[in-house]
Write the structure tokens for this entry.
Amino acid sequence: MQMFPVLLKKEWLEACRSYRILWMPAFFILLGAMQPLTMYYLEDLLMVLGGLPEGAQLAFPEMSAVDIYSDTIGQFSQVGILAVVLGYMGMFTNERKTGEAMLVLAKPVSYFAYWFSKWTMAAIVVLFSYVMGLVAALFYIQLLYGRIPFTAIISSALAYGLWLLVIVSLTLGIGTFLNNQALTAISSVMIAFVLTVTPILLGEGARFTPGGLLQLFEHLASGNLIESYASAYVSVALIFLCVIGGGFFIKKTDWTT
């Protein structure tokens, strides 16, 4: 792992050259700001753009700050996850096709350091983007709807941040096994979708799956008591398995060909 700082610097330069360090935070900031603003001005927008009959009145249920916060995270889950997958689906594939991976691994570089440096930089960029989007969302939520308890924000944000790390790990893990960007993207999105619907399909049983992090987020954001953090433990184990499995697969196979 002595080469890890050098590899991490290489990944930072690649993130800058691909503008991933710019467009991904901007994308999350846009998502985070749009949801509270859209919901707050929705009635006015519909009256102006909806072509409703004169005198028509619209009745919307009153939404709390926590409701808007949950809806915003829902947008991150639906659109933000797609951005993460598209941003990192070709991280390994591109280097294998250009021969860059062979040049790097021909040097005295640990396979695990090579894989972990990519995961670390991807996690940094994604989490930074998520935090920026969350800050933008909370600014407008507290400005337009009211305050959310600080402890609820921190605990729920950590739960959803762990969910994003699961998506990053799965995307990079699949990209290690599949030498095809399209297949990596499709597989990652499908697995993310399956994990997302597990709380609907399994109910309380979902707390033993990574998808249970979404339930955990809802409970923490609402300030409810939590009986089990099993989904968090399972998610950490899955992330660890992806990191170890990815490095082991590169080491034990003719991966660069």
Summary: The two ends are 24 Å apart (CA to CA). DSSP finds eleven helices and no strands in the chain. The chain has a mean pLDDT of 86. The longest helix spans residues 111-144.
